Automatic annotation (TrEMBL):
<dbReference type="InterPro" id="IPR012292">
    <property type="entry name" value="Globin/Proto"/>
</dbReference>
<protein>
    <recommendedName>
        <fullName>superoxide dismutase</fullName>
        <ecNumber>1.15.1.1</ecNumber>
    </recommendedName>
</protein>
<comment type="similarity">
    <text>Belongs to the globin family.</text>
</comment>
<dbReference type="GO" id="GO:0005506">
    <property type="term" value="F:iron ion binding"/>
</dbReference>
<comment type="function">
    <text>Probable multifunctional globin with a hexacoordinated heme iron required for the catalysis of various reactions depending on redox condition of the cell as well as oxygen availability. Has a nitric oxide dioxygenase (NOD) activity and is most probably involved in cell-mediated and oxygen-dependent nitric oxide consumption. Under normoxic conditions functions as a nitric oxide dioxygenase (NOD) but under hypoxic conditions the globin may switch its function to that of a nitrite (NO2) reductase (NiR), generating nitric oxide.</text>
</comment>
<keyword id="KW-0813">Transport</keyword>
<comment type="subunit">
    <text>Monomeric.</text>
</comment>
<keyword id="KW-0539">Nucleus</keyword>
<dbReference type="GO" id="GO:0019825">
    <property type="term" value="F:oxygen binding"/>
</dbReference>
<keyword id="KW-0560">Oxidoreductase</keyword>
<dbReference type="GO" id="GO:0005737">
    <property type="term" value="C:cytoplasm"/>
</dbReference>
<keyword id="KW-0963">Cytoplasm</keyword>
<feature type="domain" description="Globin">
    <location>
        <begin position="16"/>
        <end position="165"/>
    </location>
</feature>
<keyword id="KW-0349">Heme</keyword>
<keyword id="KW-0479">Metal-binding</keyword>
<dbReference type="Pfam" id="PF00042">
    <property type="entry name" value="Globin"/>
</dbReference>
<dbReference type="GO" id="GO:0005634">
    <property type="term" value="C:nucleus"/>
</dbReference>
Amino acid sequence: MEKRGECEDRPERAEPLSDAEMEIIQHTWGHVYKNCEDVGVSVLIRFFVNFPSAKQYFSQFQDMQDPEEMEKSSQLRQHARRVMNAINTVVENLQDPEKVSSVLALVGKAHAVKHKVEPIYFKILSGVMLSVLSEDFPEFFTAEVQLVWTKLMAAVYWHVTGAYTEVGWLQVSSSAV
């Protein structure tokens, strides 16, 4: 039986967020974004510690094993800021689906074409981010809020993988899992 690539199994569209869900996301994100760099660094460190194969895309810190060393890396901090700023742009523009789509298309295309990152890493990173947010902000990330954020991350992944499909990305490897 032929193995199908991840991007081929995409649903037709991302499940839209309700107005109430958008409000929940924007409210909780306000608390997270006050500490965006530290939260982003925590997310990336956990991502790289738990999924070391992801470091292959980062020549500046791919050989770092120690989380404390990673935390001091200016390149890692810079990438953490970029990740958090991209999520911030999405959250700030939830009422503007075209803006969200174009921002995530740029992220997806850059990672597919320039960095050659396998799309599965976006799904993994989303899960890591949700874990860190719920652990670091338990008073805001209740079970209901986590479900809404899971829906948002699924939409982010849907948009990003759409960009991969557009540029003809077919390679899907299981090295991440």
